[in-house]
Amino acid sequence: MNIQDMQFITAVAEAGSNGKAAARLYVAQPSVSKCIQKVEREYDITLFKRVKGVSARPTPEGELFLGMAREMLLSHSRFQEQLRRLKEMQKNSLVLGMTYQRTVDLAGPILDRFYLDNPQQIMQIQTRDTQRLLQGILDKSLDAAILAAYERQEGIYYEPLLDSCFGIYLRSGSSIAKKAVFMEGIDYPVLRLEDLEGEPFTVNAPGSASRSIVEELLRKNKIPLELRDVMNNQSRVAMVASGIASAFVPITQNRPKGVRNGVQVYMIHPDQNIYYQVCLACLDGFQYSHSFHLLLEVLRELLA
Length: 304
Hints:
The protein is an alpha/beta fold. Helices cover 43% and strands 24% of the residues. The chain has helices spanning 3-15, 18-25, 29-43, 60-91, 100-117, 130-138, 209-221, 233-241, 290-303; strands spanning 48-51, 55-58, 93-98, 122-127, 144-149, 156-169, 190-191, 200-203, 226-229, 246-252, 259-260, 263-268, 276-283. Strands 3, 4, 5, 6, 7, 8, 9, 10, 11, 12 and 13 form an eleven-stranded mixed β-sheet that branches. Helix 1 crosses helix 3 (29-43) and helix 2 (18-25) crosses helix 3 (29-43). The radius of gyration is 33 Å and the shape is rod-shaped. The two termini are 61 Å apart. 28% of the residues are buried.
């Protein structure tokens, strides 16, 4: 027995005959008759008794069946409506993933700007490390994610937002600041990695894009440094201010800020630095969607 069987049998009870029910359902009368026979065999019951050879009236067993069928059809109807609403909501919703620090820095402005321009849309923001952001795109639990893209993963589309490289917060009291030089066309004082040997550094936890890029930076230049895992950016800044350790910090080339959080920012020498892009990433193909373009417009406005 299935939903269609219950619809057919309920229609017979309401119309009073197989023929009238078939006409109401826009199906052939034999289809209705076969449906009744199938259910009667399945449950070993008689659903209708004939009156004057034409009219069909429910038997006591039929009345019992009809009570169940009407409840099931009502539940099915509610399910269909709820499913329709859910699909409509999903069609007008966007799930955006960001790292912890970007969520702290950008979630409020993104939501404010997005809803100002798109009040009918629904946006959710989920916080994950970079590897889980990429996995979320691939398993479709995320529609898009803002992440640092040093390498590109197959199957994912990357829309560049910012060009970035690496800088340094020097710990309070560090004598290394005296080694910094200024270079033409660079808005930050510049340090070479060999100037930093012996200096302790706080870095984001393993699994983060920034940690991976820092490790690649040190491998590339064959400079060993002491790295201490500190996940929270505010904690890293506090350690810098307290003179405990210095910190690597991403810097955006087209939005230079010489001082952040009250701390002087130094740039790693261009010959030693690693350059990468902050991107809005999504599953390849989603970049053509209306939702992606709405979000991209908001991000470009905020990050301009």
